[in-house]
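Worked example 3 (structure in, sequence out).
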């Protein structure tokens, strides 16, 4: 069973599933990227995973603000919708609580912006859906961390 804090972030157990309509829209092109939380022990590794997985542009600044800016933009990827799958999400920055909060807040805010902002001409911006996969025993803990991060953003 999938658990989500906001409509664009889902927590699923490994080998879990989400209804396809939550991930793939009826129209347009979808870009899917898989990242591995086991490969994110520190912030540099987090940035490297995003750089490789989302083919971030060369001007990426290798810091949280730059990651946030890139996730809100994504114009270099030829797609209308984006699905970001973070496998072993509970292992990302496991030894860095402050860094993990920054990662989660960055993902929550980027999804919020891409899911709810409209262009002046009234066309919705492309969606960004984040799927965080972890072992079944970690689902509720990861959900609680995300909920706290969401509350801290002041966006709830």
């Amino acid at each position: 069973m999938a658990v989500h804090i906001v409509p664009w972030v889902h927590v699923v157990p490994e080998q879990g599933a989400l209804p396809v309509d939550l991930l793939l829209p009826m129209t347009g092109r979808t870009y899917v990227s898989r990242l591995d939380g086991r490969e994110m022990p520190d912030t540099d590794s987090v940035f490297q995973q995003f750089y490789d997985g989302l083919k971030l542009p060369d001007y990426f600044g290798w810091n949280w603000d730059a990651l946030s800016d890139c996730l809100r933009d994504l114009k270099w990827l030829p797609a209308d919708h984006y699905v970001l799958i973070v496998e072993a999400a509970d292992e990302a920055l496991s030894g860095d609580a402050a860094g993990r909060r920054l990662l989660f807040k960055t993902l929550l805010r980027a999804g919020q912006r891409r899911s709810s902002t409209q262009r002046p001409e009234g066309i919705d911006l492309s969606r960004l859906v984040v799927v965080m996969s972890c072992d079944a025993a970690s689902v509720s803990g990861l959900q609680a961390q995300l909920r706290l991060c969401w509350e801290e953003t002041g966006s709830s």
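Notes: DSSP finds five helices and five strands in the chain. The first strand starts at residue 3 and ends at 6.
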